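Researcher: Good morning. I'm working through a list of sequences from a screen, and I'd like to move beyond sequence-only analysis. For each chain I'm collecting a predicted structure so we can compare shapes side by side. This is the next one on the list. No need for commentary yet; just the structure.
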Amino acid sequence: MGKQEDFVLRALEERDVRFVRLWFTDVLGFLKSVAIAPAELEGALSEGIGFDGSAIEGFARVYESDMVAHPDPSTFQLLPWRGASQGTARMFCDIRLPDGSPSFADPRYVLKRALKKASDMGFTFYTHPEIEFYLFKQPIVPGQPPEPADQSGYFDHTTTSPGADFRRQAITLLEQMGISVEFSHHEAGPGQQEIDLRYADALTTADNIMTFRTVVKEVAISQGVHATFMPKPLLGQPGSGMHTHLSLFEGDVNAFFDPAAKYQLSQTGRRFVAGILRHAPEFTAVTNQYINSYKRLWGGDEAPSFVSWGHNNRSALVRVPMYKPGKGGSARVEYRGMDSAVNPYLGFSVLLAAGL
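Model: Good morning. Structure tokens for this chain:
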């Protein structure tokens, strides 16, 4: 056992943790979970927990179904909505085969492979997502359009709007779990919200997005509303995307920044954009995986409908944001096509692979 494992085992005892949830995702990006008792965690950390991979979407066929979930102790966090007494914690898992080798069907491992390739080239990949979603009143009636939880618009500040209290509670829970939030506001559609996570390395961000979606659903249940990340839930209203800011760093130096270049975007940055534009028609099947995704992309508003880039154009697929004087570290590009319902591990993997 290493220091991180020792810390987790100590925390279980000191914080009166009753259940430990082991989390991983299927290929579509749906969260999977198994709960174990604290007494079983030491064995799980050293040997993993076996499960039937053929029962998980995209993982394995029946005749090769045995898989093992290995908890990553660095992702240990308490779930604040479960209470402090006899609480519940969670850890993300890496999925392996019985012989100990990584499973190529594990989305988290797919991203780790892509990050390893970038690391071998000297780069660290950072992402900063702007996550949009809708809140609807309950109940949702089958066959009827859902009713938005409010009628506010972009950046509206309305003291009676349920969205403000919703965002406040969600952000409080996220920060209790160590997930930093940069901005939050009402989006353009009625009932539509946006919460932006602070930038981090791509693996941490992907874990944070999976946690974020769980927190939003939990807060919605507690407040009697329905939260959805569906790309285009309302006809004639903006869809929900996950505009994501991307940058490569070489050590502490932003590889996308060149003060002498046009738009201060370096040759490395321009080539990265070229790779994304070149491969976008193919990898959109991963970043936008539902039929409903294309109702958003071809639905007008600010959704990108064509392979294009722009400097300040907010309908372009790739946008080069305006440079902030004196802040070369913030140089980045923004990919605007991705859904907020994406599998973040696979979405970040294809963006990075295309850029590289």
